[in-house]
Amino acid sequence: RERERGGNPPMSPMSPFQKLPITCVFLLLVVVLSGAQQPYQNNKQLDCSGTSSSSTLGYSCSHAGDGPPTCPSFLVFRSQTDYQTPDTIGHLLNADPHAITRFKAVTDVVDPIPLDTLVLVPVDCSCSAGGRYYQHDASYTLERTGETYFSIANDTYQGLTTCQALMDQNPSHDSRDLSEGTRLSVPLRCACPSKTQQAAGFRYLLSYLVTWGDDVPAIAARFGIDPQAVLRANTLSAGDTIYPFTTLLVPLSAQPHQRLRRSFSP
């Protein structure tokens, strides 16, 4: 009838999204676009007695938003004296030694790998710890008196876990009185790509161990990706500092190629 009278047609009701102020819409878009990001540890992993933050306890399942509950992932480990073969590294990280050899580190699981070599370790990553954090579960039995959560996290596991995460997931053990033979649950840091990251072509997130002399452009170049992708995945800006004994998530569109390269020297 309005058209017959020459008037304008009635407007359709506005959706709740249309009624939002422009600022709110922008903030919502920022939240959606940043859903693929995980917070960087920012050297908090060294303060075992301090208040645990989500960044030290693990990569949050909720930060991935619509990411899958489980996925294939990769850990980086540097060969060291006690863990210098695919067999010993696989045992420490609860990974398949033969899968390590398939990445061309060596031909046999008992063959020694040159010390301080970057080793790619394929693992399954799952949303665990009561649905709070992504992790790959391993276990460790204390081999000698004097080992602490700090030394296990930063020396044995090189930063693939944290003392805060070890304490959080081993509540029945006194963190100040660990004894030889104690068996610990070890949550290793990993994450699954969100749908936003998958839409950008990323299929895997690799947990890279930062060491002295590392920077984001060099790490990105090592894996042939844009440094901005690494920065975004870890909620970092170009000028931010990264620290040894922390992990960076490296988004990958395909499985990485294993290269036997020595780490940077301190």
From TrEMBL:
<dbReference type="InterPro" id="IPR056563">
    <property type="entry name" value="LysM3_LYK4_5"/>
</dbReference>
<dbReference type="InterPro" id="IPR018392">
    <property type="entry name" value="LysM"/>
</dbReference>
<dbReference type="Pfam" id="PF23446">
    <property type="entry name" value="LysM1_NFP_LYK"/>
</dbReference>
<protein>
    <submittedName>
        <fullName>LysM domain-containing GPI-anchored protein 2</fullName>
    </submittedName>
</protein>
<feature type="domain" description="LysM">
    <location>
        <begin position="206"/>
        <end position="250"/>
    </location>
</feature>
<dbReference type="InterPro" id="IPR056561">
    <property type="entry name" value="NFP_LYK_LysM1"/>
</dbReference>
<dbReference type="Pfam" id="PF23473">
    <property type="entry name" value="LysM3_LYK4_5"/>
</dbReference>
<dbReference type="InterPro" id="IPR052611">
    <property type="entry name" value="Plant_RLK_LysM"/>
</dbReference>
<dbReference type="InterPro" id="IPR036779">
    <property type="entry name" value="LysM_dom_sf"/>
</dbReference>
<feature type="signal peptide">
    <location>
        <begin position="1"/>
        <end position="36"/>
    </location>
</feature>
<dbReference type="InterPro" id="IPR056562">
    <property type="entry name" value="LysM2_CERK1_LYK3_4_5"/>
</dbReference>
<keyword id="KW-0732">Signal</keyword>
<dbReference type="Pfam" id="PF23472">
    <property type="entry name" value="LysM2_CERK1_LYK3_4_5"/>
</dbReference>
